[in-house]
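Known limitations

Structure tokens in this collection are predictions and should be treated as such. Users comparing against experimental data should check residue numbering before alignment. To illustrate the layout, the record for FAST kinase domain-containing protein 2 is reproduced below. The input appears on top and the generated tokens appear beneath it.
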Amino acid sequence: MNNRAGSFLWNLRQFSTLVPTGRTMRLYPSGFCRPKIVYSNWNPRKLLSNFDNRMQSSIRSLFQDTLIFKSRGDGFQTKGISTATVLTVDRLLCPRRLSFNSKHFVSDNGLKKNFHHEPSNEDVLTKRTKPTPINCRKLSQECNSLSDVLDIFSKAPTFPSSNYFSAMWTIAKRMSDDQKRFERQLMFNHPVFSQLCEQIMREAKIMHYDNLLFSLHAMVKLGIPQNTLLVQTLLRVVQERINECDEKCLSVLSTILEAMEPCKNVDVLRAGLRMLVDQQVWKIERVFTLQTVMKCIGKDAPIGLKRKLEMKAMKELDQFSVLNSQRMFAVLAAMNHRSIILLNECSKIVTSNIHGCPFKILISILQSCRDLQYFNIDLFKGIADYVATTFDIWKLKKVLFLLVLFENVGFRPVRLMDLFMKKAADEPGFLNMKSLVSILHVYSSLNHFHKCWTHEFLEVMASALTGSLYHISSENLLNAVCSFCLMNHFPLAPINQLLQKDIIHDLLTSGDVERNVHKLHVLAACLKLDDVPCHKDTHLVLPQLPSMPLHPHAKVAEVLSSLLGEGCFSKSVWLPHNYYIDFEIRMDANRSQVLPFSDVDVVTSATNIQRVAVLCVPRSTYCLNSTHPRGFLAMKMRHLKVMGFHVVLVNNWEMEKLEMKDAVTFLKTKIYSPEALSTADINLQSTC
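Generated tokens:
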């Protein structure tokens, strides 16, 4: 008996700690409850008659079902108003979803008993004012604006409050940008918006984890400032409960972090996400979730984690859809991890399913390839051929955007550029200043010409530039004129405008001065060396370009020594107009003999000398996967020929692969004329 009484008193004390006070809330017409702490008229004797030693389990079941329950006349004091009593419960014991069925009770013998009472006026009033749970989808379908959602909340707020934010974001997604900005301002000014924020902060620790994440995602997308107490509070709660993440929550959390700016709480949460992903990466089943996580972990994630995610993605390659393959480029670019195997496999899938690919996807793929320095000629050709085949359905501005990205990776889509050149010449109306400068940059950088349309195209571009001289900035004018110079075309009006002293002074004192100086040197060289009769005597006083440490190619120098002998060539030669050549060789006019390299010979036999410039060039000076020189190399070759040089191009990457014997043969065929090579037994050291 004593044991039974002791057990009962212990249970009673436990219940007392759970329900120390009551919270009475008055239901106001606006639908909000203002809590007021009151001491309830608690009668322990009535409690003794109803609860036994199984009370503890009953209490736990109660808290799993309800947070707010209606007062009874014999349990809580009321004074003519409808009240709701909220039990204050420790966070660890408080559940995620709560409801209460007051019809059933457990008796001493464990049987379920029913008890009823006649409903009072207070009961009827409370039932009428009790809000009905609202589904987020239904709410978003019934409302047409963010304010409509807040109005419904003001009438009858329900748990969880995340439904209201999720519904508002669903509605906002259907709006235009201008309407979205207007509605967002109305949302911030709505009288109950702050109350909704307060309520969701109170519920943050007890609502389901996925609802918490959905509400935070909606807040970020709705444009609620990140430094507000609301957002920072939810970030902290998400941190505390991160171990509740399942695969779905992992995807939502990754999306949230990707959209947020760095701050202390975001950084801590991102670190926690990385640790969680490192532990659960092999449990991820959906490719979409895996890619979302990979995109979120950041460029500064540990290389071990990146490789683990890469291996997981390779393991799931056979599950990749076309959309997964298209998305993989941006995912790898976001984590700054160039996985050649993944990129190659995804390129094959994208190329074989290129037809119907949306413009945004094409742009994303090319941008990612540029960022990752991944150059897949088959992928680029597939995209270019698809756009060229469907050229008539594309707007010229979209095609130009693609051409700019192709230029970034050094790829020259000949057919597409020809079509665009003809279309731009026929319909110049779409040209504005930004597109004009971009077009000139693309065509000059890739050194693209068409035998029939180039002259007409350049005239149209020059005319459009001339018509915009009074609206163009100094830097844009310099960029456009420099592009014309690379293409050996010199429109007088833009050049005259550029050569004005105030514009030159502006370029030398503002903006990217070093870049401007370099382009002005290009202009000065073109005015002196190319056929520009009106400006032959123009002299620009420009700062010297910064000197760069240049070293001649060691293997080429060794090959030349073996082929020609010492003293028959010069290394690292600087020429007028800031031109640099790796090696200079002097030969007779027929390029059949190498002449001694001495000042006396140069002076006495200058008319019989053919100067040979050997340029050791990297792969980047050519268009991708071709021997077509890009703009600056083509202009340099043109100017060297004007200065009397025969130009020999030596590809660095090819020279490194050759054995010494093959390298000597290669340079021999480049340096000597075909006629000289056809003669028998050339004496390589005849004059050295």
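For this record: The mean pLDDT is 80. The CA atoms of residues 133 and 158 lie 6 Å apart. Please report discrepancies through the issue tracker.
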